[in-house]
Amino acid sequence: MDGTYLPRDVRSAIKYIKNSDLYRREKPFQILIDIPEDVPDQRFTNLVYDAKEEIFHDVRGKEQEYSLNDNGFMYRQHNFGFDDYEDRSAVEAHYLPKIDQLIRAEVEDVDKVFLFDWRVRHQVTSSTSTSSKLKSIENSLDITLHYHVWKPLRKPVEDWPLAVCDGSNLEEDDVLETDHVRRQYNGANMNALYREKYRWYYLHRQGPEELLILKQFDSAANVKVIRAPIPTARKCPS
To answer: Which is more confident, 34 or 221?
Structure first.
């Protein structure tokens, strides 16, 4: 990295869940399947959003300053030597074992790794989610850590990079758990309420060998960051 690089900090609006009395009476929810006609409540969601402008700070050249325990995210350089993302069998046979090795190499004191889910995303718009399967794994272990590994597949990100909120100033009452009802499973997302204290970061032109590792949850009592750092995709200039 030479001394000529200038960080591409950008301003962009982000939708926070609105702090409403409604959520004291009922849990936030989003139904992603058809609702039967005989059900009295035909609402697909009760989510109400509030858009706020934020500054997204470019971490390029400072990637090593952020860590999972201090910030809830980190960037790592890694070449998996894999390109067959359209072949599900190939992903599960060859790519996911490399993710297992990555987690064991980058995270301290890992005993067991459960690869819960994977998918090719075209755009990221909300926080991380949980399901009954993930809960059952969590309940079977003394200490659990949930991580997400995200990377561009083949080319640097030119637009809509993945941004994260620094988890070091994210507290439990800053987020509302939101039920997601799908045809195959029920899960939950964590939606953030607006707070002036948030600090947002992204990596300008993140490339295929630049991995973003996110901490979703840490059950240990002696760590600084226990919650997900709220990932979101933002429109940014190239």
So the answer is: 34
